[in-house]
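All the exercises in this workshop are built on plain-text protein records. A learned vocabulary of local backbone shapes supplies the integers on the structure line. Once this layout is familiar, the rest of the handout is easier to follow. An example says more than a description, so a record of this kind follows:
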Amino acid sequence: MNYSYRVAIGVLLVVPLIHGQSTYTGVIVNANCFQAAKAIKGMRKSILKHCRVNPGTTEFALLDEAGNFFKLDEAGNTEVLLQTSTTPRKITVTVIGAVNRDVLNVRSLSTGAADILASRFGP
């Protein structure tokens, strides 16, 4: 097989994996609180005040600095639960993923410098 065909095939296989992936930074909040259900851009302070993560929280969302509210997918929820055995009042994260409507499909999630969700697509 010609080298340029191999390169072309490799590009076709890799592009869908990275297409649409972005980096999001913000605070993890309870995705099911009353204020979150009516999340409107600009309500960041209210959401931070009323939607804190507590020991019973099982569904999480990322709230960024601009006030955008993205619910995490199941993998993101699971990793937040696994990695936050003690529930801090404020969990700041960086997420690499893609938004589909209001759900952030998490590819990787890190808090501080520690990676807490390995890539679902391998190392």
DSSP finds four helices and six strands in the chain. Helices lie at 3-18, 34-37, 44-50, 74-83. Residues 5-17, 113-123 have pLDDT under 50 and may be disordered. The longest helix spans residues 3-18.
